[in-house]
Amino acid sequence: MGEVIAVLSGKGGTGKTSVCAGLGTALAQMGKQVLCIDCDVGLRNLDIALGISQLGALSFWEVCRGEYSPEQAARHPVYPNLRFLTAPMDCPADSIDPVAFSAMLRQARNQFHYILLDAPAGIDAGFRLAAGSADRILLVTGADPAAIRDAAQASEKLELMGKQNIRLIVNRISRKMAAAMDLTVDDIMDQAGLPLLGLVPEDPDVVLAAAFRQPLLGYTGKGAAAACKRIAKRILGWKVPVRL
């Protein structure tokens, strides 16, 4: 039975989508059957981060309506273990039936090892839709005070929803920035109130890979790509030291 992982953030600009794409690609590279679903209705960008913006893809709402099955999701041209469902453009998040969405994910659990949900930023309907059906939640934050505060608020919201398996990923961080702010990872964990799953460094290759229509892990094996691989290994239960 597969696991549903929601990748969330309290605010925009944390790089949540690039982290979701990096983790999905890394898990597929390690032989896992992976389905990435863009849940950001109206502002979908996961296809760009996966390097497949020119690839036609079904929307998850078409699967929810029973018109297609999850296994008919678009196959990544480079990573055959990786499939993708895009977000619908013609329906708001609060009009999507959570029962139908959960039923689609139950079906997908029988066909994939991991289903990654790239939720919209904030704590509105799309956040609740993705979090509601997730077995595990990865909360992506930056190291700046506003991002950390929003991560703490998102964590409180998730706890009110009864969610417990929540881990923090600090993205776009650099040693120089942390030193200038006199900020440690322990400080970020304390302020967000969550255990840490991983650190992802600030990396210009994230933007360059998207510009060249390539998945990050196919463009480079360093920086943020290496960090995503380490986090993916921790998701699989491997003991990998946390470092930049």
As for the CATH topology, it is Rossmann fold
Q: What structural class do helix, strand and pairing data support?
A: alpha/beta
The CATH architecture? 3-Layer(aba) Sandwich
Q: What distance lies between the first and last C-alpha atoms, to the nearest angstrom?
A: 32 Å
What is the domain tally? 1
Tertiary shape: globular
How do the helices and strands follow one another from N- to C-terminus? EHEHHEEHEHEHEHHEHHH
Average pLDDT rating: 91
Report the biggest beta sheet as strand number plus sense, adding barrel if it closes.
8 strands, mixed
Q: Helix coverage percent of residues? A: 25-40%
CATH homology-level superfamily: P-loop containing nucleotide triphosphate hydrolases
Question: Given the structure, what is the number of helices?
Answer: 11
- Tell me the name of the CATH class: Alpha Beta
Low-confidence parts: none
Beta-strand content estimate: 15-25%
Number of strands: 8
Strand line-up across the major sheet: 3-4-2-5-1-6-7-8
Rg calculated over all Cα atoms:
17 Å
Strand-helix topology:
Layout (H helix, E strand, L loop, with lengths): L2 E6 L7 H14 L4 E5 L7 H4 L10 H5 L9 E2 L6 E4 L12 H12 L4 E5 L6 H8 L3 E6 L3 H16 L5 E8 L1 H6 L4 H8 L3 E6 L3 H7 L4 H4 L3 H13 L9
Parallel strand pairs: 1-5, 1-6, 2-4, 2-5, 6-7, 7-8
Antiparallel strand pairs: 3-4
Helix pairs in contact: 1-11
